[in-house]
Design a protein that fits this description.
The protein has two helices and 15 strands. It is mainly beta. Strands 4, 7, 8, 11, 14 and 15 form a six-stranded mixed sheet that branches. Strands 6-10-9 form a three-stranded antiparallel sheet, covered by helices on one side. Strands 1-2 form a two-stranded antiparallel sheet.
Length: about 190
């Protein structure tokens, strides 16, 4: 199972807390990223209630050093979340550097376990996105960088985002050239 895809639940819980399995024990991404809306993206967080605002979280950009985080932050221009690409209801949400989450300077985020344990990370998290109708919707994320930016991990985990706009990438997706694939999410009717 990848960090973004997984089985869909019958209906999301009424509480808007997304627990990420990236952390052990699972950690609330809402608290970590300061997001009040339901977060969509990680396994276990693939369903939302139709009619509610939501936010999109993507796998982290992991770097070999804190300098790599500084370089990503310096070169990051914007992220663009395309919802329902290629359909009549397609729309885009764009945010700048304010969307980046990397933890406070005194306690930066690090990957807690696995092959990137102890490595620092940063990630763009969308602003609140307008409510969607009942059904399956898709999302793909693009980033715009002012200069080529590499994660410094080396080997198969090495990723470089080019200057300009490109599809967002993460070392958690080596089998697809590190590109974070378009993801499907379910929006269900609230139960009375």
């Amino acid at each position: 199972m990848s960090i973004i895809t997984g089985p869909a639940a019958a209906a999301p819980p009424t509480e808007r807390i997304c627990l990420s399995n990236l952390f052990d024990p699972p950690d609330s991404l809402n608290a970590r990223y300061g997001v009040d809306e339901r977060i969509i993206g990680p396994p276990g967080c693939l369903d939302a209630l139709a009619g509610e605002h939501w936010a999109r979280a993507v796998p982290p950009w992991v770097t070999a050093t804190d300098a790599g985080i500084a370089a990503f932050r310096q070169n990051f221009v914007s992220a663009r979340w395309v919802i329902d690409a290629g359909t009549p209801q397609e729309f885009t949400v764009t945010a700048g550097p304010e969307s980046l989450q990397s933890g406070p300077p005194e306690d930066p985020f690090t990957v807690p376990s696995g092959p990137f344990a102890g490595k620092p990370f940063i990630t763009p998290v969308s602003p609140a996105i307008r409510p969607l109708s009942v059904g399956t919707h898709t999302n793909i994320v693009f980033v715009t960088m002012s200069a080529e930016t590499c994660n410094g991990l080396g080997g198969l985990a090495e990723i470089c985002l080019p200057a300009g706009e490109s599809q967002y990438a993460s070392p958690f997706f080596p089998s697809v050239g590190h590109l974070v694939p378009a993801s499907g999410f379910n929006f269900v009717a609230p139960t009375p």
